[in-house]
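Students often ask what a holo structure prediction actually looks like on paper. The answer is less mysterious than it sounds. You provide the chain, you provide the ligand, and the output is a string of discrete structure tokens encoding the 3D arrangement of the protein together with flavin-adenine dinucleotide.
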Amino acid sequence: MFYDVIVIGAGNGGLTSACLLQKMGKKVLLLDAASQVGGLSSSFKVGRFEFDYVTQPLAFLGTESHHGKLYDLFLELGILDDLEFVNGSSVFSRISLNTEETYEIPLGTSSFLTKMEEYVPGSKDAVATFLEYGKEFSLALSNLKEPLDYEKMAREYPHFQEFFSLSLQQGMDELKIPKKAQDLLSTFWMHFGSPSKDLSFVFYASYLYQILEYGLWVCKNRSTDLTMTLCHAFEKMGGCIRTSSCVEEILFQEDEICGVRLSNEEEIKTKVIVADVSMASVYGKMLPKEKVTKQMRKFCHARTLGPRPFCVYLGLNQSKEDLGIHDYPYYISASLNSNEEVKNMNGVSSVIASVMNSSSDSVSSHTTTLVLQSFFVNDYFTEQVFNRDYRMLENEIAQKLITIFEDATKTNLHDAIEEISIVSPVSYASKTGSVDGAFGYLSKGYDNLLPRLFAHEQERLIPNLYFCGNYGPLLSGSAESYLSGAFVSEEIVKEGDHHEE
Ligand SMILES: Cc1cc2nc3c(=O)[nH]c(=O)nc-3n(C[C@H](O)[C@H](O)[C@H](O)COP(=O)(O)OP(=O)(O)OC[C@H]3O[C@@H](n4cnc5c(N)ncnc54)[C@H](O)[C@@H]3O)c2cc1C
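The corresponding structure tokens follow.
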């Protein structure tokens, strides 16, 4: 059987690209090594509780009357009528363990600005400028098209080039944003694992602007619902999905891709491959040895692995009101300052806590589904795994996360724990095949969005092989991985047209 395109991995990126390519008239086969689709966008059940692996609500969505780029993508895929999204959170809480400060900050640009002024008098104008630039950068990033017309970019997005090479820290200093406001503005650094001195100013300002403008959303009945809706749309269009189908080798005829070989030795023909898996998996495991070049090894090593998540999924037998917790995310760390936090990080000290009740009708009002997520930004966990009893290590870290949350929020979770599941980087690695359980690469220096986008062409080392998802050109993240599926599909179709011409 010959397919126009084979997609390896049915995570967000793979599923999206499979759907779009099928929609554009290609004959697509989607293969996943696991027995279920979705990769990290799936859920699991423990007792009467169901948990999403990924806890953070979706960015870039918005509503019918005010929509972000993810809304446009789902509209194009024709899946919006089959989905229900609920507002994931309208407020977030920022807590410092060192100083016991707590800030409750609303989403929505004007409420956000008002609150920032209340917490940091005199900050409003500088923060407003930050968000205005964020708006400009988000437009500029959406319109980055190769070859770049620098004069047009400078005319239409004057601050884009000015701030292009600055880190978030440098950009905030340049705008003279007061230090406390800088700390609060940088809260979402925890999703990327990079502190403000490493994150790109352009990327982060655009990201924060879009979160405030379009909100954060969760799919009713969990991310599995979104995954299954995408699968149905793909199959309805004639696409073929095969689970429990692990790709072991990419096959070549002379220098051209000619198919894949699965672990059961089956060979399937294609000339185009989309990989929703890491470069390390493709270059290190799937390519025949003679095809692996120095350049490939160099690119694999040029990047730093992203945060390695460690999550504690808690099924609590009390309502959130009885527990005294709110259904908005808590961002807890020792220091409010991201640079200080990462510098002093030894083990885990930062926690993102999310109450997941609102995303399921089946959650009883007398229970609470709470996920405590932390992450390692270095090799600490990997090193400990080799030197310690694994179960004890997991339990110790889980206990620490629970204590951090209880201390920060002055609550008692222990007495309400009915179910507990611990998912360490080791489990994430076995679920997605990622190196050390990291999601993607760290957004740092060469790994930031703009260098990655600009190096994208150069990094295409094998004709007709494309990467999407966490390892695609748009950085790691739930929303970003869906969008990266669209990005590569457009490229494939464009290059296909070009070849046909
Ligand atoms: C705990 C946690 C918290 C997160 N929090 C956030 C967050 O707050 N905000 C955010 O934006 N993002 C977050 N993310 C990241 C987000 O979940 C991911 O960016 C997104 O789901 C990744 O999608 P993907 O397309 O890269 O595919 P993945 O979900 O990585 O799936 C890859 C798929 O490839 C398959 N596969 C691997 N090898 C093979 C092979 N050889 N053959 C066939 N199939 C193969 C796997 O089985 C898997 O299904 C979080 C992730 C985790 C784990």
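Residues 478-500 form the longest helix (23 residues).
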